[in-house]
Amino acid sequence: MAYRLPARRLASIGVRSLSSQATAASNLSQKVQDSISREASLPNPDPSDDSASASLVKEHSKFMLATYARPPPVFVKGQGSYLWDLENRKYLDFTAGIAVNALGHSDPGAVKVISDQAQTLWHASNLYYNPWTGALSQLLVESTLESGAMHDAATVFVCNSGSEANEAAIKFARKVGKSVDPSGAKHEFVSFHGSFHGRTMGSLSATPNPKYQTPFAPMLPGFKYGNFNDIGAINDLVTEKTCGVIIEPIQGEGGVNVASEEFLLALAKRCREVGAVLVYDEIQCGLSRTGTLWAHSQLPKEAHPDILTTAKALGNGFPIGATIVNKHVSETMKIGDHGTTFGGNPMACRVAHYVVSQLVDPKLQRDVVSKSQVFKKRFDQIRERYPDLVAEVRGKGLILGLQLTQDPSAIIKAARERGLLMITCGTNTLRFVPPLNISEEEIESGLNILEEAIKATR
Question: What pTM was estimated for this model as a whole?
Answer without folding.
Answer: 0.91
